Prior knowledge:
The protein has 83 residues and is an all-alpha fold. The protein starts with a helix and ends with a helix. Helix content is 70%, strand content 0%. It comes from Denticeps clupeoides (denticle herring).
Amino acid sequence: MSQHSLMTTQERKLQAAAICREIKGPDDPDMDLGRKLNAPKEIMLEELSLASNRGSRLFKMRQKRSEKYTFESIQNATNTDIM
Length: 83
C-alpha cells in the first residue's frame, strides 16, 4: 500500500501545505488579489443579449430548449387531463 493511502485527510493537507511552503520559499510575499467586483445585473443581461458572444448564443439555445420543454410539459399535462 502506498504511504498516501495510509495518511488521514488532515495529514495529507499538512503535507501539501508543507510542500507548497517549500516551493514558494520564505521570501515570496503573498499575492493580494483584491476584492471581487460585482457586475450590475443590467450589464450581465446586456452581455447575454449580444449575438457575437459565444456564451450568449449558448444561453439563448439553452433558453429555447427549456421553453420547448416547458411548452411540451404543459401540452402533455393537458393531454393526460383530457383522457
